[in-house]
Amino acid sequence: MTEAGSGLPAAGLPAARLPVARREVTLALGAGGARGLAHIVALEALDELGVRPAAISGCSMGAIIGAAYAAGMPARALRSFVLASFRQRPRVIAKLLEARVGKLSQLINRAGLGNPVLVDGERLLDLFWPEAVPDRFEDLRIPFSAVATDFHMRSEVLLSSGPLTPAVGASMAIPGLVRPVTIAGQVLIDGGAVNPLPYEHVTRRGAFVIAVDVCGASFVSDSRVPEPIEAMFGASQILMSAVVQRMIEQHRPDMIVRPDVGAFAGLDFFRAQDILTAAEASKDMIKRGLDAALA
Questions:
Q1: Choosing from 190, 213, 254, 291, which is the catalytic residue?
Q2: Considering the chain, what is the average pLDDT of its residues?
Q3: How far apart are CA 295 and CA 122, in angstroms?
Q4: What is the pTM of this model?
Q5: Are the beta carbons of 190 and 138 closer than 8 angstroms?
Q6: Cα separation of 178 and 149, whole Å?
Q7: Is 190 a catalytic residue?
Q8: Active-site choice (60, 145, 171, 241)
Q9: Is 60 an annotated catalytic residue?
Q10: CA quadruple 9, 203, 146, 161: dihedral positive or negative?
Q11: What's the pLDDT tens digit per position in 46-99?
Q12: What is the reported pLDDT for 225?
């Protein structure tokens, strides 16, 4: 579902008549685990219109997708890369095991305090990211920033320069699943803890701000009791959704895009094709909204 900001017409001129250069467009891609694959559909809409964002800010999965796109990788290529990556389950599991930090023996040797499923986010990005993604923010083609959380100070940290992989690794460091990252003496975890949809970082005078929110409620009743990791991840999604709602009440971006992916769990990466298909309806809505707003 796509929600337009206040005063934005519901429909406009055909997309082919979009005056691309008349107004800057900036983009915020939110946290949401596997649901964040829906960001690719929003990026495809921009590519098909010939709209190049002037700046991108991302959180967690939004940072992963946003950085790859900011590197110059077309959205269609991102789609193909993601589908190919998750097509072979054994290969994906092998990569996850390779990136794993914890060991089964920790459950015994550390009196149950170890975590045998914890992974190194930076290593995971090295294994899964396209080769086109550079090592540093400065080498990206579109200005990009990633949001993380300072664990000890309980505050937001905006990362926009220097090494890219540690920054995005920090933004996606979901507690209990991905190891925290230390940058400049700060212990950083998932940015979704403080700012799941960082559109204020791309809000600038005269720009049209698009925020893609993928952490909303599923609206599907289910009596199934979730597994422990699923419950932990789901609780994080619930908290992020509440944070986003408060943010929007205080300051609404020009366009809020909410792809219809609420029925998917945060770890449903092997359902990548289904997620992209479910999000497809948001593409035309983005085009109509941009056409009307930029005409």
A1: 190
A2: 86
A3: 42
A4: 0.85
A5: no
A6: 13
A7: yes
A8: 60
A9: yes
A10: positive
A11: 999 999 999 999 999 999 999 999 999 999 999 999 999 999 889 888 888 888
A12: 81
